[in-house]
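tokens incoming
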């Protein structure tokens, strides 16, 4: 998979790119080049400029200065097609998979006469990736696909239009370990057999190591590592180039034990006679296919009133009747669906940060002192924002995630429920978020943490409760198997 196997001139070369948004100088002479057959990690801390560079390369935004050269191997003289796969899928939910792929080929109205033709294009593209999957999903609506299947469809669509460059922006957030491995073997195959140039944006060091052969690092809008082989960079070098402290927090792990009668202890009862007694201050991880953890979480945060799960103890009897009731009972929630359920996009950062406090206090008006409170929370999380009066849309993805965590900091909470709270967050900031969550646990809150990043669960949690691939509770990860293999086995997701 080395670049040398293919001709030397890059598929894509961006040179001295400049970009400002108002007074914010985002890209400061950034360089980036991608060769055929290469899987290239584009790395950098939150707000370093990765997404902005991708938007410019794909033509979604215009650079203020600099040059972009694209060179196809095809002889028609056209530039290579670039396809982007985001973590939020770009599929039309009510159309079938075949129609979703075919739509990229529709030149005018999507006529019935062309349907058979586009269906066969779609089938061919999907079969190249996975013949069995193609048979199963071709004629079903896109909304019924899992996230991983949706990504495969997006990649098939890219292949069907002859894309030579594939950009993946944190594609593994929300994928299970098994799905991630499947995606990686597909990407390796596309690079090797089709010489597609792949750009992979991620904050997960283990995945970057497993997948990528080349690495570029942006720091504050400048290219500090330009297309270096991954083998030449140790993890610590990468973190240092990104400008982040290379500390590893010490792990102190205690297991959930004892009866449920300690003050503040809560009891969870669920399907298959499941019973969990959770002591205050416990960090409880949830692992496994999304359907299991998400059903439990929906009950905990008041999003589902009828549920096979029950929460009791310390004056609580849930299901709650509404999210508001859950907040008033002292349950905080950082949702995984940042855009849909988390960020209040039309309100400034200030309102986003103090939202939970306002709901708890039952007030809709601005309290004096909120501005100071917001500023100190923003500073505690080193949230990179122009002003607390800016809209959250002006923040980079990782900084929007910090905003959602900031909302619950320093509140007297009984329980904090977190769905992938470090999704899209850079390595240094992850450490900060881990420390903040530990702080909440030390203050006595029970932390319920759902993550698809098994390494993270194993590092942080006192106990991990696993669900099977169909969402059935499987039990706690046993002490002597408290490792990745044990977790993969218990969740039925051994790769
Ligand atoms: N439309 C915009 N208006 C104002 N500022 C913007 C806009 N888009 C991006 N920025 C700013 O540009 C900087 C770089 O953002 P960008 O999204 O490119 O970072 P990133 O490296 O992709 O970060 P992350 O890892 O958090 O996704 C950030 O400080 C962000 O606030």
């Amino acid at each position: 998979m080395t670049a040398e196997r293919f001709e030397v001139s890059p598929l894509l070369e961006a040179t001295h790119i400049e970009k400002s948004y108002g007074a914010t100088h985002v890209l400061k002479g950034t360089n980036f080049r991608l060769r055929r057959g290469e899987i290239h990690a584009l790395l950098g801390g939150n707000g370093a400029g990765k997404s902005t560079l991708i938007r410019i390369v794909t033509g979604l935004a215009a650079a203020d200065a600099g040059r972009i050269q694209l060179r196809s191997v095809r002889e028609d003289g056209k530039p290579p097609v670039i396809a982007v796969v985001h973590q939020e899928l770009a599929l039309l939910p009510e159309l079938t998979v075949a129609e979703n792929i075919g739509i990229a080929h529709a030149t005018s109205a999507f006529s019935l006469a062309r349907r058979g033709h586009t269906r066969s294009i779609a089938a061919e593209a999907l079969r190249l990736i996975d013949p069995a999957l193609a048979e199963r999903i071709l004629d079903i609506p896109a909304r019924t696909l899992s996230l991983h299947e949706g990504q495969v469809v997006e990649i098939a669509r890219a292949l069907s239009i002859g894309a030579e460059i594939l950009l993946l922006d944190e594609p593994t957030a929300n994928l299970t370990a098994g799905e991630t491995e499947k995606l990686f073997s597909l990407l390796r195959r596309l690079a090797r057999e089709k010489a597609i140039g792949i750009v992979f944006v991620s904050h997960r060091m283990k995945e970057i190591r497993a997948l990528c052969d080349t690495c570029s690092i942006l720091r504050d809008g400048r290219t500090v590592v330009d297309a270096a082989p991954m083998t030449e960079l140790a993890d610590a070098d990468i973190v240092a180039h990104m400008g982040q402290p290379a500390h590893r927090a010490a792990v102190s792990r205690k297991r959930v034990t004892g009866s449920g009668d300690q003050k503040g202890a809560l009891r969870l009862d669920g399907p298959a006679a499941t019973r969990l007694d959770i002591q205050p201050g416990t960090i409880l991880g949830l692992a496994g296919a999304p359907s299991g953890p998400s059903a439990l979480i929906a009950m905990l945060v008041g999003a589902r009133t009828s549920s096979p799960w029950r929460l009791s103890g310390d004056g609580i009897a849930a299901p709650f009747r509404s999210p508001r009731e859950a907040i008033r009972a002292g349950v905080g929630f950082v949702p995984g669906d940042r855009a849909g359920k988390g960020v209040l996009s039309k309100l400034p950062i200030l309102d986003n940060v103090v939202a939970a406090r306002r709901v708890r206090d039952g007030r809709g008006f601005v309290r004096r002192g909120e501005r100071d409170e917001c500023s100190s929370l923003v500073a505690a999380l080193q949230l990179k924002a122009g002003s607390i009066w800016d809209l959250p849309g002006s923040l980079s993805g990782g900084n929007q995630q910090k905003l959602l965590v900031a909302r619950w900091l320093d509140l007297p909470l009984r329980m904090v429920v977190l769905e992938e709270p470090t999704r899209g967050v850079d390595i240094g900031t992850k450490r900060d978020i881990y420390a903040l969550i530990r702080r909440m646990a030390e203050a006595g809150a029970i932390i319920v943490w759902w993550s698809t990043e098994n390494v993270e669960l194993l590092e942080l949690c006192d106990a991990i409760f696993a669900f099977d691939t169909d969402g059935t509770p499987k039990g706690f990860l046993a002490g002597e198997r408290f490792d990745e293999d044990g977790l993969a086995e218990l969740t039925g997701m051994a790769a």
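note: Residues 21, 24, 26, 44, 46-52, 384, 394-399, 424, 426 surround adenosine-5'-triphosphate (CB under 6 Å).
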